[in-house]
Amino acid sequence: MASSSRLIEPAPHSQPFPVGGRRVSHALVLYEPAQEAECDGARTLRLVEQAVESMQALRERADYITAQAHDLIRLTNLERAQVETELRKVREDKAAVERQMRDAEQALARANLRLREAELGRREAQVAAREAETRAVDAEARAVDAELREQGLASYLKKISAFLQVRLAVAEREA
């Protein structure tokens, strides 16, 4: 005696599982043996077609999510490249400011030396010392500002890397 099957309908109170904030229908439906007359080739074909359509929809959704993840990674990599370029510029600026600071400190030392050596040129040496101190303070303030910007950008890059790792892990789990 050939076995046949019939569709087990979901209970009226059961709901499709939500996926990504939207509702989807059941992908697989259970069957139980029934009368032989209920099983025919058309029904089987229809059920197979429904299963294939469900699998295609799931595959399309997975492809869409994968494409979104790749787009996000590409955009984040572009942003990271921009931040790295800015970080490199900040580091170059910091190095230039540090050179200026060393130059200003050396100018201050020369001015102080001239002050001790030349009693007659005291007034002129005092003016040079004040100017050198002002440049040193300005250069130091710029160096501190550049260092703070560098630390902020480095922290931002760490956050981006952590975010990418989380998104990649989520994308791999969903795929």
Report on the structure:
This protein is mainly alpha-helical and 175 residues long. It has a domain at 71-174. The chain is 74% helix and 7% strand. The chain has two helices and four strands. The protein has helices at 41-117, 122-174; strands spanning 4-7, 18-19, 22-23, 31-34. The strands form two sheets. A two-stranded antiparallel ribbon has the order 1-4. The longest helix has 77 residues, at 41-117. The two termini are 43 Å apart. The model is unreliable at 1-19 (pLDDT under 50).
Can you give keywords for this protein?
two-stranded antiparallel sheet, disordered N terminus, 74% helix
What is the gist of this entry?
This protein has helices at 41-117, 122-174, and strands at residues 4-7, 18-19, 22-23, 31-34.
Uncertain residue segments = 1-19
Number of beta strands? 4
Shape: rod-shaped
Helix-strand sequence? EEEEHH
The class by helix and strand makeup works out as mainly alpha
The largest sheet is: 2 strands, antiparallel
How far apart lie the N and C ends?
43 Å
Biggest sheet strand line-up: 1-4
Give the helix level as a range of percent. over 70%
Q: Supply the number of helical segments.
A: 2
Rg is 36 Å
User: What is the percentage of strand-forming residues?
Assistant: 5-15%
Mean pLDDT: 79
What is the secondary structure topology, with strand pairs?
Layout (H helix, E strand, L loop, with lengths): L3 E4 L10 E2 L2 E2 L7 E4 L6 H77 L4 H53 L1
Antiparallel strand pairs: 1-4, 2-3
